[in-house]
Amino acid sequence: MSTDHDTAAPVRFDTKIAVLLRDDLETWQRLNVTAFLVSGLGSQLPEVIGEPYEDADATPYLPMFRQPVLVFEGGKETLRAAHAKALQRGLPRALFTSDLFTTGNDRDNRAAVRAVGTDALDLVGIAVYGPKNAVDKVLKGARMHP
Q1: Spatial separation of the C-alpha atoms in residues 128 and 70, rounded to whole Å
Q2: Labelling 20: which of 4, 11, 73, 137 has CA 20 to 30 A away?
Q3: Whole-prediction pTM value?
Q4: How far apart are CA 121 and CA 57, in angstroms?
Q5: Which string of DSSP letters, residue by residue, matches the chain?
Q6: Cα separation of 146 and 144, whole Å?
Q7: CB 129, CB 91: distance < 8 Å
């Protein structure tokens, strides 16, 4: 008996989900920022979410992204440039600023971002989604996270 994964060709995506983190973050900050950023993409772009999971005992699990999330890092200027390019290209994006490390809830997070102009945001992370080529151009100068 053959299963789908035995005969299925590898899935290739013409889109990319990418997170760019500032390279001076502590490990716990990198993990926290990444989780927050990708949650924004999944909540607004249903096409990035796959089907729910189920184990052999029929225990259900939540669906996850249908494709890998690539994580990059770069300096403050790389992040600023990537943010500007994502805005210019109109790509779906999420952001995390340094101010969000000092807030403790969603309302205060949104107020902290709202209080600062686009060019003055102290970005520590962004997530972008879109066609591979467009996302690659946004991430120019960033390097894969080790």
Answers
A1: 10
A2: 11
A3: 0.88
A4: 48
A5: ---HHHHPPPP--SEEEEEEEETT--HHHHHHHHHHHHHHHHHH-GGGB-PPEE-TT--EE---BSS-EEEEEE-HHHHHHHHHHHHHHT--EEEEEGGGGS--SHHHHHHHHHTS-GGG--EEEEEEEEEHHHHHHHTTT-EE--
A6: 6
A7: yes
pLDDT band of 12, cuts 50, 70, 90: confident
Structure tokens at 85: 């390019």
Total length of the chain: 146
Question: How far, in whole angstroms, is CA 23 from its chain's centroid?
Answer: 16
73, two tokens: 């890092």
Which pLDDT tens digit goes with each residue over 29-86? 999 999 999 998 888 899 899 999 999 999 999 999 999 999 999 999 999 999 999 9
